[in-house]
Amino acid sequence: MKRTRYTKFQGxxxxxxxxxxxxxxxxxxxxxxxxxxxxxxxxxLNGDHTMENLREAIKQVMESGDFLDEEMQQQYDEMNQExxxxxxxxxxxxxxxxxxxQQEGGEATEMQGxxxxxxxxxPAPPQGEARFHVTDKSMDFLSYKSLxxxxxxxxxxxxxxxxxxxxxxxxxxxxxSKPYEFGDVMNLDVNATLSNALQREGLSVPxxxxxxxxxxxxxEYQSSCATVVMLDCSHSMILYxxxxxxxxxxxxxxxxxxxxxxxxxxxxxxxxxxxxxxxxPIQAVARVKVGPYYTNTREGLRLARRILARSNKxxxxxxxxxxxxxxxxxxxxxxxxxNAFGLDPMVIAETLEEVNRxxxxxxxxxxxxxxxxxxxxxxxxxxxxxCKGKAYFTSxxxxxxxxxxxxxxxxxxxxH
Length: 416
Known about the structure:
Layout lengths: L18 H7 L1 H4 L20 H13 L6 H9 L2 H17 L3 E4 L26 E4 L1 H16 L10 E8 L7 E3 L10 H12 L13 E9 L1 E8 L12 H18 L4 E7 L3 E4 L16 H13 L5 E8 L5 E3 L5 E3 L6 H16 L2 E7 L4 H13 L3 E4 L8 E5 L4 E5 L1
Parallel strand pairs: 6-7, 6-9, 9-12, 12-13
Antiparallel strand pairs: 1-2, 3-5, 4-5, 7-8, 10-11, 13-14, 14-15
């Protein structure tokens, strides 16, 4: 009698590693913001996206003891140097084929091209050294992971999901009923319609239903929203031995993913503010680095207000992610006034005046505050109160826990 013996498949080691899990483990390396964290496992790589650094980062993940399960860790430990190099080559190739990264060639220059706001000049790699950049697919994946860690599970998404106080005809019957009018969604209230017909004609067969008998369900009117995410990339975001910028980017990425998936009818824009302010594609948020800049909050609000003025959405909001301290101001002649010491009265006054302009334009300002300084918290509270927005107070190491101050209901609550 023929016998078949089944044994465990001993496949390619690299093929058994999930790329999503690997990308999540490499998140700190891929999202490096220019902060030199002595406790980071990728500290020696300096956030430089060369292919050699990518291989080294993957190697550090494998050797951390936290990524692989016990069996795969044992297999990795038993590999010789040549086998490990082949495994790294295979993983990098899979990442390229899966469109997680794209390789690019290096050129010999004194510095890495033209340095603009949101970036710090770094020495260029040696001539010919291969580099890579993270694709939009990876940015979307990392945004989803940030959202999952930050806000929990996602619901289903349809266009126009923002609750309001009004009612309208719609598919979801969450409101009362009303007589049908031309143009309404035909979400028929069958019981009320038949009741009207019976009252008019009495119990007879066949029952004739006329136009005036029609009754429809109403649903809560849900509007669309235009959102500008304002991201502070000033130097204060990495001062005092604390990296506030990487958590800020994670919040921005989570918000962008939330808005795109939960509220696909909305529009979303990204504004970086520092000595000045400029608009960037939202997909670029994960690649932004902190710079040696001050915090020109007023200029950021001014640009955000101009962007929202072009929108025809029902609601308009600014989501500002900052450490809360305005320290720069653009003067009428174009010069930048800077004062990093305390809360400058002139800077604060001009910033609050811009907040007033946002209020008059019916723009809500919601603020993620990544610091716990009392004076800064008072400033953020005042901004939120003026525009009837919300202030989310947290710290970089506790992004999952917020103290939400809702100025529309005047209540305080903690969100975990």
